[in-house]
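Known limitations

Files may contain more than one protein. Parsers should not assume a single record per file. Below, a two-record file is shown to illustrate correct handling: read the sequence, read the token line, then continue until end of file.
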Amino acid sequence: MQLRRAYERLADLIRELAKFGIIGAIAFVIDTGGFNLFHYGLHWGPLTSKVLSTVAAASFAYLGNRLWTFRHREQSGMAREYFLFFLLNGIGLLIGLLCIGFTQYTLGLTDPLSTNIANLVGTGLGTLFRFWSYKKWVFLAVAEVTEEVPRELPGEARRVV
């Protein structure tokens, strides 16, 4: 029975990871494509372009993860989840920036290959952080009911009418 439960948990994790990866890949295309469209197509500044493409990609990722990847998890309110989702995306972005900054400014490796490797490492670590943190704080597990839910508040007697 323990082995079967472990297998089911592993299968659930693999399904979540696959869905998370698909949503992430589409969000990556939205981010990269949006940045290039805004910056090179519309000739907006690079920072404005990156902010807009990241907000669009993160919004898509939130909806995709809420409605597909983690739809079986507890829903604790869209405003709360959306806020935490963007906060945790900011931390994930910081992980990537630290990897790039360390490579360029500490190691002095500024060539395109080193920068892109640092970016991939940062994206990978940021993605692992996001997956873990979304499951822990944004898309909460459904609470298992182990006892009957009381019908009145503790210490409150039922009134007879």
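...continuing to the second record:
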Amino acid sequence: MKWYLKALKKYAVFRGRARRKEYWMYILINFLVFMGLGGLDALIFGENSPLVTEDAPPTILFYIMLLYYLGTILPTLAVTVRRLHDSGRSGWWFLISFIPLIGAVVMLVFTVMESDSENRFGSSPKQAA
């Protein structure tokens, strides 16, 4: 949870670097929150949930999920750019994720790679910790 909150505190900080642990813990907790809200919505509202039935009206949990999604777009982009900086790449490499399939694989490789000890984006956050 510490890493998730750290990423949220740097809501729109696109400079600097993010360790693998900071990035992946943020992504994991974000995923769990989405799955939890979606599962809760489907569990409580069942067939009346827009996540279950296409023509169902939106529920309150659906709106909460939507607000959460909109609220985490910028922090997700920021932590991804900082993670790319950690591997010595510009944040513009994020745009490669818009290429179907190949882009997602390339982004996965970039975010899993080991950090550079020092690069143009600063010293390694791993060594500072």
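Parsers that stop after the first record will miss the second one. For reference, the second record is described as follows. Strands lie at 118-119, 122-123.
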